[in-house]
Amino acid sequence: MSQTPVLSTSPFDPSLITREQLLAIIAIQTEIAKVGLDLGGVMALVVERAQQLVGGDGAVIELVEGENELVYCAASGIAAQQIGLRLQVTQSLSGLCIQTGMPQRCDDSDVDARVNRAACRSVNLRSMVVIPLKYRNNCIGVLKVVSAKPAAFGSADQTLLNMLSEVLGAEMFFAAKYAQDELFYRATHDEMTGVANRALFFDRLRNLLGQSRRDDCYLAVLIADMDNLKKINDTHGHTAGDAAICELAQRLKNMVRVTDTVARLGGDEFGLLLHPIESRTALERSVQRLLDEIAQPFLYKGISISLSTSIGYALAPDDGFDQDLLLEQADKAMYAVKRSISAPADK
To answer: What are 149-177's pLDDT values in tens digits?
Structure first.
């Protein structure tokens, strides 16, 4: 038997909000403002804070992509490993939220016909509240907080999240707008590869270190450096070497989440910021996946060229919160890997 849909006819009811909750909303809005125009950073912060705000087990930001899909672009808690999950707008409660422009609530996903049960079970959620993210009446996505328990949320939670979504929708719109603005983009991205540049990398590192310290969560700092660039330049020419650098940048970008950062620090050296990371073991698995993907040859003008990369890392808070020391440790670890392999040095 299908559950009776729970709809919000009054998404904002001030009488449901306590003074402490209102102060919490203001504090989150202040944190969002401090992150600035970093879209990934804003989304990562909000899912963490939304989960805490209403006592959920996880939270997700889903953004509309194309005409028919919603994509998990940021996630926390039990949903953290589902970034990149795609749902059809017509087959999920989030899609109904987008279509109606109204908050939605599910008290039990096992009996609610409106939800995508396969997706719910993959996240291990039983109840959720979904709030539209709007800017000037355009729905750009949803903020969803989930729980492993049935009927975990009520009208007060819906009101709180609606208040948060109002500032979030505008902030995300402007962050996305400025990220696409040519002058802003050129100031923050590497011209050759299209990934973040050194300045944006350090700006995001500072923000994420502060967030990691506040939330007591892991931040991984990685340094990746090509092993065989000199050989590629000598054998196939410098244009092939540039193509190899661009290929490496694209593979790194394709392998990480939207909330992570890939930046070209200079030459054939890249920096990565992975946040949040569950543990050192999870980080080691991520590094191995990166290495496996990078090791696949790529074609340049019909020629198969092998790629090889050394990666070193540091993990906050285990390795501290000092920016320079974390980078130094990651860099030393990367060179230790370089010395341990048999490929000829190209530095």
So the answer is: 999 999 888 888 888 887 777 777 666 66
**For the range 35-39, what are the long-range contacts, defined as Cβ-Cβ under 8 Å and sequence gap of 24 or more?**
35/207, 36/175, 37/174, 37/175, 37/178, 37/179, 37/184, 38/175, 38/203, 38/204, 38/207, 39/172, 39/175, 39/176, 39/179
pLDDT class of 6 with cuts at 50, 70, 90: very low
| Exposed / middle / buried, residue 323 (Cβ in 10 Å: 0-12, 13-18, 19+) | middle
Q: Please tell me the predicted confidence (pLDDT) of residue 40.
A: 77
Residue at 112: amino acid letter = D
Query: In whole angstroms, what separates CA 224 from the centre of its chain?
Result: 20
Question: Is the omega angle on the peptide bond into residue 5 within 30 degrees of 0, that is, cis?
Answer: no
Ordered structural domains, the chain, with CATH: 6-180 (3.30.450.40), 190-340 (3.30.70.270)
pTM of the model: 0.59
Catalytic residues: 268
Token output for 337: 């890997």
Return d(Cα 23, Cα 297) in angstroms, integer: 54
